[in-house]
Amino acid sequence: VMSKELREITQILSEAPMCFIATVEGAQPRVRAFQYQFEQDGKLWFCTARDKDVFKQMQANPAVEICAVKPDMTWLRLTGKMTLADDRAVKERVLDTQPLIKGIYGSADNPVFTSICLEHGEYVIADFSGNPPRKGTF
Hints:
Elements (H helix, E strand, L loop, with lengths): L3 H12 L3 E7 L2 E7 L3 E3 L2 E7 L3 H8 L2 E7 L5 E9 L4 H10 L1 H7 L7 E14 L7 E4 L1
Antiparallel strand pairs: 1-2, 1-5, 3-4, 4-7, 5-6, 6-7, 7-8
Helix pairs in contact: 3-4
């Protein structure tokens, strides 16, 4: 059963058109747009290519921060360590639901295509209501 916190996190990620994932390269932060895929087994799943700089940065240092903003300006920040979990079932689910990604990678057997996930971390959820941000762990 999904926790209330994880349910709210996945709702925000699902409603945000894109999220942004920050990695570290040496002493330099790097940020890029990502598409959140889904929650499965208590993990937040994304996908990328093994030959991209972002993947190499996460191999060297898995610490990431993710930020997503819903159209109503509610925003979410997640901090944790990305797991480079190449999961065939996850990749097949992504390909079944994302025609654009299928067009890029073709099949789950493509050695460049990989899944990554965030399983644990800290979160902050805030908006412009004047209420204080809500913080916790997931």
